[in-house]
Design brief:
By secondary structure, the chain is mainly α. It is built from 7 helices and 3 strands; from the N terminus they run H-E-E-H-H-H-H-H-H-E. The protein has helices at 2-22, 42-53, 57-60, 72-78, 81-90, 104-107, 110-122; strands spanning 34-35, 39-40, 131-132. Helix 2 crosses helix 7 (110-122).
Amino acid sequence: MIFRTSALVLLATVCALAQAQSTPPADAAPLYTVQDGYKVDADTMKGFRAWRAAACDRCHGANQEGMVGPSLLASMKVLTKEEFIKTVRDGRLEKGMVSFAGSPQVMDNIDRLYAYLKGRSDGAITRAKVEEIK
């Protein structure tokens, strides 16, 4: 009986901790704002511009569906933000991904680039080419 009670208390504690970690604060700003599938907020637009400036489409395709590099629509579903930043910053030379640590255009907009690609992967941004919300 003591074992069962201890196990239930432990399970309840683990569940509570998991819920607390996975629930964003209610006042957290949205990662991106999209209207009509292709109109985005100013920060997400800067992420799109960083994508274009770095010519990421040469490897990942104009629609982020992959070419020589993997589909980012699929990758962004499993990569954490930290993993994404590490990959962009450090590259994956063994897989042909160069480092963008020396690119101010990319690194100064890394959070915005993440938001743009996450919006594409989530399906909220339905077109690769976006416009800024007026």
